[in-house]
Amino acid sequence: ICLQTILVGDSGVGKTSLLVQFDQGKFIAGSFTSTVGIGFTVMFAYHVSVCFVTQIWDTAGQERFRSVTHAYYRDAQALLLLYDITSKPSFDNIRAWLTEIHEHAQKDVVIMLLGNKSDMAAERVVKTEDGEKLAKEYGVPFMETSAKTGVNVDLAFQAIGKELKHRATQQPNEPKFQIHDYIESQKHKTGCCGP
Ligand SMILES: Nc1nc2c(ncn2[C@@H]2O[C@H](COP(=O)(O)OP(=O)(O)OP(=O)(O)O)[C@@H](O)[C@H]2O)c(=O)[nH]1
């Protein structure tokens, strides 16, 4: 099976880096060519026999491409919302993304909030608790990731893969897969001990 996923978030939060880390297990330092407009990158990554077809979007040109993006939302099975823990504006914009997602995405879309660049402790301006609070408010799973060190990167995709696989094969009297519990049991808290 192939899962349609979309990575959204402000320019520079690390969407491309995260996907490269997941796909190839490596971090390419330095800046990438900025994503222009929408639906720019489609990357394939295989993990536990699930293939992820991922598009990367950022806010650039959002107004101009509005009607196009709405069409893309409808096909998405999972949306990964990224902010950068060293950028308050990128965090503040998450609400706007969530509002838009709730208006246009499928009702059962899997949404996950990711606070990226968790390795940059000295530059942090968004507290872990703030990310947790926002995620709770919207009822979405949350974790902090680092595209640089790889912390929690696989887990984010793995949790989505498990959730969607489970839904597809779920028996009527089988207990539902609890994505929140799964993530809590697997995730590495950053700041102290690393992966
Ligand atoms: N230290 C650190 N740097 C990161 C991390 N993720 C991304 N970066 C750096 O942040 C910059 C932006 O990363 P990108 O992956 O290009 O961000 P993007 O969200 O794809 O940006 P656009 O293509 O403009 O939308 C690059 O210089 C990366 O090397 C991370 O987890 N830790």
TrEMBL record:
Pfam families reported in the protein's UniProt record: Ras
Molecular function in Gene Ontology: G protein activity; GTP binding; metal ion binding
Keyword Iron: no
Catalytic activity annotation: GTP + H2O = GDP + phosphate + H(+)
Keywords attached to this entry: GTP-binding, Hydrolase, Lipoprotein, Magnesium, Metal-binding, Nucleotide-binding, Prenylation, Protein transport, Transport
Transmembrane intervals: none
EC number: 3.6.5.2
Keyword Magnesium: yes
Enzyme class: hydrolase
Necessary cofactors: Mg(2+)
Stretches of the chain forming a coiled coil according to its record: none
SUPFAM superfamilies per UniProt: P-loop containing nucleoside triphosphate hydrolases (SSF52540)
GO BP term, pick one: protein transport
InterPro entries: P-loop_NTPase, Small_GTP-bd, Small_GTPase
Family assignment from sequence similarity: Belongs to the small GTPase superfamily. Rab family.
Protein name: small monomeric GTPase
Record organism: Maylandia zebra
